[in-house]
Amino acid sequence: MVCLGNICRSPLADGLLRDKIQLNNLQIEVDSCGTSGHHAGQQPNERMMETALSHGYDLSALRARQFETADFKKFDLIYVMDSSNYNNVIRLATSEADKQKVKLFLNELYPEKNRAVPDPYYGGSQGFEDVYDLVDKATDLIIEKLK
What CATH number should be reported for the domain holding residue 114? Predict the structure, then answer.
């Protein structure tokens, strides 16, 4: 799961997917990161943690990190939250196989529409709720594909 700073969208997707994987007894590794390293080592944004917690998900153990080329070898799928993240990740790909791993996250919910998960960072609380709803629905669909 990849967004810009790894403090809002991608840790939410990471946290929800981890819990859903555990509930479904699947053996899948999930992680999140950002294309920027500005928040490396930090917890998710407080407003995102509060939003997630209000829905029963605890993101407090997650820490931001920056995407690195080794992630292409470690993961089979790399979900990005918007086209800017997509372009930044694709630039680091060393092969066509790497590029094929990179998917826009909301294409799970809206196939081939290339919609972005909006960045709630500069908005109000409703933006965080809206992002939660999108991420919750998309992670449900991902789980269905992984079963």
Answer: 3.40.50.2300
Name the DSSP letter for residue 120. Answer: -
47-20-138 Cα angle (round to 5): 70
In a domain, 6, yes or no: yes
Active site residues: 3, 9, 119
Burial class of residue 108, CB neighbours in 10 A (0-12, 13-18, 19+): middle
Assess if residue 147 is contained within a domain: no
Backbone angles phi, psi at 125, to 5 degrees: -65, -30
- How many domains in the chain? 1
Q: Is residue 61 in a domain?
A: yes
Condensed to tens digits (0 to 9), the pLDDT of residues 93-105 reads 999 999 999 999 9
Report how far residue 101's alpha carbon sits from residue 90's, in angstroms, rounded to the nearest whole number: 10
Q: Locate tokens 């933006």: which residue?
A: 127
Angle (nearest 5°) at CA 114 between 39 and 87? 45
| Cα–chain center distance at 62 | 12
Q: How confident is the model at residue 31 (pLDDT cuts 50, 70, 90)?
A: very high
